[in-house]
Amino acid sequence: MKRIRRRVNKQTAIDFAVYLLVRTLFAVIQTLSVQRMQPVCNGLAYLVSDVLQLRRRIIDTNLRIASPNASDQQINETRRQMWAHLVMMACEIAWSRRRLHLSNWRQMLDFPTSGIFLRPFLEGRPMVLVSGHYGNFEIGGYATGLFGIPTMTVARPLDNRFLHRYITQFRGMHGQMLVDKEGSADIIQQHLESNGTLSLVADQFAGARGCWVNFFGKPTSCHKALALFTLANDAPMAVFYSRRTTGPMQFEIGCNGVADPREAGPELGGVTELTCWYNERLEKAIALSPEQYWWMHRRWRDVPEKIQRRMDRMAAKQAA
């Protein structure tokens, strides 16, 4: 028992030290200008990508799936730009609390598809916002709350409870509520029944029992629940993204389409059809700025033989 207690105390001390380091780095970043951080981000990206080669094999494999005709030079450049984007993303999260407000959001955010995106909200209906690990999705969630649209986000808690509490506070500043993905079904259902908005990251591998569809031309597994939330609750699904445009702290908040159960389009024929639909639209969003996607995730894994045969039959049927 004493050994277990010492181990727990040691891990708590490590977690708190990491939390203090992150808070210190954020405090330093908040004092610096965009111009000073840009070369720092580029330098760190080169270090991680070319010197340490962190997750290089996975990143390069994923990039070749998405861009089979890309040259080695293009793959290397995209990988380097992806790491620079991730470092800058952390900086933007640190800056947003002090620099992005209702009084100045027009200087940093462009919302070209606001009419498509806002209609279901104005109708007072539940809604499912689907995004991916693309652009600065944390700014996207921050911005929707800033506009008076509170959302519920489903995510696994961080192992470091101090960092988890800090990030939860950041997300909750303007009404974004975070719930644990384990055992949250009843909470989500009540939220949708009260015409709430659900915000979900849709590009996470769902295992062998998920819904298998093509993503950039190769099968991957998606969680069935995303489509079911829309189909079972008369809740329009919007593919939502927040990508950096002309530079740091400059974003396009975009909507790549809305699937409305009341319009009964072909994408609403079932779970597979709707899952295909939102993955296709995520692809189109990522194609706008591929260097802003998280290519280090293992999005594609081995396809079970039974699933592969079924998908081959479906492809042959569509081609006939």
TrEMBL record:
<dbReference type="InterPro" id="IPR004960">
    <property type="entry name" value="LipA_acyltrans"/>
</dbReference>
<keyword id="KW-1003">Cell membrane</keyword>
<dbReference type="GO" id="GO:0005886">
    <property type="term" value="C:plasma membrane"/>
</dbReference>
<keyword id="KW-1133">Transmembrane helix</keyword>
<keyword id="KW-0012">Acyltransferase</keyword>
<dbReference type="GO" id="GO:0009247">
    <property type="term" value="P:glycolipid biosynthetic process"/>
</dbReference>
<keyword id="KW-0472">Membrane</keyword>
<keyword id="KW-0808">Transferase</keyword>
<keyword id="KW-0997">Cell inner membrane</keyword>
<dbReference type="GO" id="GO:0016746">
    <property type="term" value="F:acyltransferase activity"/>
</dbReference>
<keyword id="KW-0812">Transmembrane</keyword>
<feature type="transmembrane region" description="Helical">
    <location>
        <begin position="12"/>
        <end position="32"/>
    </location>
</feature>
<dbReference type="Pfam" id="PF03279">
    <property type="entry name" value="Lip_A_acyltrans"/>
</dbReference>
<protein>
    <submittedName>
        <fullName>Lipid A biosynthesis lauroyl acyltransferase</fullName>
        <ecNumber>2.3.1.-</ecNumber>
    </submittedName>
</protein>
